[in-house]
Amino acid sequence: MSGWLSGDVALITGGASGIGAAVAERFVAEDAAVVIFDRDASRLDLVRGKSADPDRVHTVTGDVRSSADLHRAVTETVDRFGRLDILVANAGVWDYQRQLTRLSAGELDAAFDEIFAINVKGYLLAAEAAWRELVKAHGCIVMTLSNASFYVNGGGPLYTASKHACLGLMRELAYELAPKVRVNGVACGAMRTDLRGPEALALADRSLAASFDRRPADAPAPPIPLHSASVEPADLTGPYVLLAARAQSSTITGQAIQADGGIGVRGFTSGAGGDQL
Ligand SMILES: NC(=O)c1ccc[n+]([C@@H]2O[C@H](COP(=O)([O-])OP(=O)(O)OC[C@H]3O[C@@H](n4cnc5c(N)ncnc54)[C@H](O)[C@@H]3O)[C@@H](O)[C@H]2O)c1
């Protein structure tokens, strides 16, 4: 498919890397203009520089925990491209599956605040900054959710709770912004990205991609019906296009497409997670 987003304008948080950057590239290929928002200014420049059409890519540096930064991004979007049709709420961090029993009380306290501020409040603040323009455009929000929005052990308690919270947020906003704005999510499974951890756990410099690279070639395939661990962000952009495209999904709101290789149909693969305790 191509041209499904012709004339549309999208704002993508966390658009300088991983699935956010892949969605930006795909949206440009579908004839949209995109504004990519991220706290990493140099990577924003790289993504814009590599774009098939840099004139249709605008960058804004900021932090999703800052309402002022997100309002500035919406203002710049409208100044540059005249409208805002699609918000992709996406910037996030992982907890590297740090289980409750491996967190001190102090770590838990600080990491909760950091992870929820980015993963949950960041989505809500972005929606607040964008909804007025989205109502004008009869547009939509697409949230990056996760297998951890539905299942355990895709993170520790902090990440899993944050992604379950995003599922609830998606559903609540689908109700509150209907009928003018559709709100849906793509629940991504594991993919090879530079996903980082929280500063509060000294995991800000750790990259998920490095864990992928460390997997021995003869390691057993992960228990996922459709695929191995080698999924790239570009493999997951189709559901974002589908949900963002008015003509393709005008009757869909409050839904998550689970793009996780079929975790939900695999059955039990392991028992208790705490047998070592
Ligand atoms: N990688 C996976 O396996 C996986 C699986 C399911 C869901 N997800 C979700 O995908 C989303 C994107 O992550 P990714 O895997 O592409 O990782 P990534 O690190 O490659 O991309 C995330 C981007 O968000 C930015 N960001 C982080 N905190 C920010 C902040 N406070 N303000 C502004 N920008 C910030 C980062 O700079 C980075 O560019 C996250 O919500 C993550 O939870 C990832």
What does this structure look like?
GO terms for molecular function: oxidoreductase activity, acting on NAD(P)H, oxygen as acceptor. It comes from Parafrankia irregularis. InterPro entries: NAD(P)-bd_dom_sf, SDR_fam. The protein is α/β, with parallel strands linked by helices and 277 residues long. The chain has one domain (9-259): 3-Layer(aba) Sandwich (Rossmann fold). Helices cover 39% and strands 14% of the residues. It is built from 8 helices and 7 strands. A 7-stranded parallel sheet has the order 3-2-1-4-5-6-7, sandwiched between helices. The protein binds nicotinamide-adenine-dinucleotide. Nicotinamide-adenine-dinucleotide is lined by residues 14, 16-20, 38-40, 43, 63-65, 90-93, 118, 144, 146, 188, 190-191, 193-196, 208. Nicotinamide-adenine-dinucleotide binds at residues 14, 16-20, 38-40, 43, 63-65, 90-93, 118, 144, 146, 188, 190-191, 193-196, 208.
Oligomer: single chain
User: Which percent range describes the beta-strand content?
Assistant: 5-15%
Mean pLDDT: 94
Low-confidence stretches: none
CATH architecture: 3-Layer(aba) Sandwich
Number of strands: 7
The largest beta-sheet arranges its strands as 3-2-1-4-5-6-7
Count of the domains: 1
Q: By helix and strand content, what is the structural category? A: alpha/beta
Pfam families: adh_short
InterPro entries: NAD(P)-bd_dom_sf, SDR_fam
Protein name: 2,3-dihydroxy-2,3-dihydrophenylpropionate dehydrogenase
GO molecular function: oxidoreductase activity, acting on NAD(P)H, oxygen as acceptor
